[in-house]
Write a structure and sequence with these properties.
By secondary structure, the protein is of the alpha/beta class. It contains eleven helices and twelve strands.
Length: 333
């Protein structure tokens, strides 16, 4: 059934884009399942028609959409919690959207979201916007704030909140050198697309300034097995650095049955209850602060008080615990 006259509907978008209604719906709910050229047409049609999917909202409240790979990385939920705490004090409705992990996508670009809500602002975490989405957000005058997305020349058109991952890698490197290590195995998820600079790439870059790095890509913690430790031995690595604490936890579990003297020291990244409970040396990220900062920037853009190209850099902190001391005498390789 079509909506009342004068209101733009999904039927109008489908007709203008030359696709079915189900394709428009799929592009909105699961954009990675729609071909890029089709997504482009749908976004262009929705933008030209001024189409927005609307839902109930509080009177007088700003509406901020937040898109991130929440179910892939719990760290983004912690960033969201920082936003929610800040939202208690201001008139703002936050609408979260779960995205596919950028590392797991052949095209880690968000192309459709600006057309799927009547949001007054958009916060994108961990996934860069595609060209169609950037054009749509500009045409619709939806301000965008990025979190954990490294700006590339000509690709970022809004404020950016970053935790200095390169410095985090350097802090780990200096810590390992102080313990006598010269080579480390870096366990990370595979990155299928070269279209963006990931946090892991920056951490490796910082780590390499102090120790030799041997990358080892695994699809997830469950894939960490004896082959990872064998790769470390083959490369002469005397420590393991994980791109996330969950990977580090899997390495610790793998070594649990080994004598203490045979266990490789392990360092993670993120910090939280898991790391504290395992005695894991890791890099603490100010997740909640980054979320709160992003929301404040978004609200500032909506109100016209934030700079359109501000970059806020937050500092990570190395937290030393027992896991990096296992199996090694400090000061000796």
């Amino acid at each position: 059934m079509r909506a009342r006259p004068g209101r733009v509907t999904i039927y109008d978008v489908a007709a203008r884009a030359g696709v079915s209604i189900s394709t428009v719906s799929l592009a909105v709910s699961a954009p990675h399942r729609v071909r890029p050229e089709t997504r482009e047409r749908i976004v262009a049609a929705a933008t030209a028609l001024g189409y927005r999917m609307t839902q109930g909202r509080r009177i007088g409240a700003s509406r901020i959409a937040v898109a991130a790979p929440f179910t892939s990385y719990p760290s983004y939920l912690r960033r969201l919690s920082g936003m929610l705490r800040r939202a208690r004090d201001v008139a703002v409705d936050i609408i979260p959207y779960d995205l596919e992990s950028a590392a797991a996508a052949d095209e880690p670009l968000l192309d459709v979201l600006p057309a799927r809500t009547d949001a007054s602002g958009l916060i994108v975490m961990g996934v860069p916007l595609g060209g169609a989405a950037r054009r749509a957000s500009r045409a619709a005058r939806i301000p965008v704030v990025y979190v954990d997305v490294v700006p590339a020349k000509g690709e970022i058109g809004g404020p950016v909140v970053l935790v200095d991952d390169r410095d985090g890698g350097e802090q780990i490197g200096r810590h390992l050198v102080e313990l006598g290590h010269r080579t480390a195995l870096f366990v990370h998820e595979p990155q299928r697309s070269p279209a963006y600079v990931s946090a892991g790439m920056l951490r490796i870059e910082g780590l390499q300034r102090h120790v030799s790095v041997v990358p080892a890509a695994v699809d997830g913690p469950a894939e960490i097995d004896e082959r990872v430790l064998q790769a470390a031995r083959d490369a002469g690595a005397t420590a393991v650095v994980a791109n996330h604490d969950r990977f580090a936890a899997a390495v610790l579990d793998l070594q649990r049955s080994r004598p203490e003297s045979e266990r490789l020291p392990v360092v993670g990244y993120d910090d939280g209850e898991l790391a504290e409970g395992l005695g894991l040396t890791t890099v603490r990220q100010p997740f909640e602060e980054s979320g709160r900062t992003a929301l404040e920037l978004a609200l500032g853009l909506v109100a016209g008080t934030s700079g359109a190209r501000d970059t806020v850099r937050l500092a990570p902190t190395l937290v030393e615990r027992a896991s990096s001391l296992r199996g090694v005498t400090p000061g000796r390789p």
